[in-house]
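User: quick one, fold this
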Amino acid sequence: MIDEEDIASKTMDSGIITTGITRRVVTGALAIAPIALRSARGADSSSDPSFFDGAKLSAAYQDRSLSPVEVTNAIFKRVDALNSAVNAFIVIDREGANEAAEASAARWQAGKPIGPLDGIPVTLKDNIPWEGHPTRKGSRVSSDAPTAENSPATARLLDAGVIILGKTCMPEFGWKGVGDSPLTGLTLNPWNTRLTTGGSTAGGAAAAVLNLGVMHLGTDGAGSIRIPSSFCGVFGIKPSFGRIPAQPAAATLHLGPVSRTVRDAAVFLQTIAGHDPRDFTSASATVPDFLSSLDKGVKGLRVAWSPRLGYVENLDPEVEAITKRAAAAFADLGAHVEPADPGFPNPRPILDPIWLTIAWGTVRAVPESKWSELDPGLLALAMKGRNVPAADYAAALSARATLHATIARFNEKFDLLLTPTLACPAFAVGHNTPPGGAFGDDWLNWAPYTFPFNLSWHPAASMPCGFTKDGRPIGLQIVGPYLREDLVFRAARAYEQANPWPFTDTPKSA
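Assistant:
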């Protein structure tokens, strides 16, 4: 049973809409009813521009059968109709988006588009600075003042001519793998609004499912792009650490796209990747042409399938069966697939001192008088981090180098590693872990596959690979060698073309 209480209202200021908080308290066992899956997205979806992917929009702009103004209007109609059911957005900037759409339309009309993202509607996660808009990070203790400067990624997107629709919801400071926060309440899974989206790129994934924007920029510190991508049945990639510059830089933070299609994610990454002096950790390596190799397939690639990474004990049987079938499909596509573990022990002892210290650093910056306004789970985590010895933190940073080297040796034999993205399907909204106690009270227990590759800096993506019997999406994780996002894209694209994944056009409530 779900009780709903509306505890805040929507406010509007200067064209910016900040969604209010809706808290839903789950008070009993949740019965998940089967969901009918559809590849078709409505009778008129083939001609409705609000359903188009980036490639189709660019082609329509090129032949002038559509303009960015028409597309922006169509997507805002969908946002108006559907966002209240999933709570994906914290900020919607209609005025700014319409101005950007008009400017893009003029460029296309003149035959002078900036590039492949010109006129493409996108969103930003709310921890990514966007000049003139607040960066609330899902927290009531954050400032609501407009941010003074764009992040490097935001600036590159704007320079590419995108239309930023708004900012998407996230859990407070991105501390956990589900999608609720004290500021914005619950973000809900479009496949079943009784389920969590996962997090922390919660709103971006929900928006991607419904095509409320074509591409969505998120962040991933321990799985925050891949987790909601898996739970929501969309594609999300965490590039190699430093491939996209961050501001401010952080120890495990990777920026990356969430989208419906692999190609859109590749174009998006191509546009915003590359060194920026504001992020001293950003990679100076040349960004490869992801599109030139996108359709090369996987024939001849050496692929390892590791359902448990050598140490995962608790894995949902349906998840294991679905991801095993998906891994086997790569052999049908011409890859050499064999079971193999990457050879590192559970890296949780490496993550904990880093993760806890980051949590304490975040909370320490908040006046103690406001700690009562924080998510209690974040505050508890920070109190643990308060007592992490400096020597333990330093040792964890050193151990990351060993982990990176272990995977590098593994990549001498294997081009790619496949795992389940998560150990369970999406579960009841309002919980940090699945009800029933199988994974305890720590959300990282059901996400053991994602954080190792934040620690090791390797690129990793989640792609849809099937559904449980009751209709919950399942993701397969593809991990590549350091700075080899091209291989990850190739593999995901090959699977996507052979096994197209369906979407839902409206939120479902089972």
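User: anything notable?
Assistant: DSSP finds 14 helices and 19 strands in the chain.
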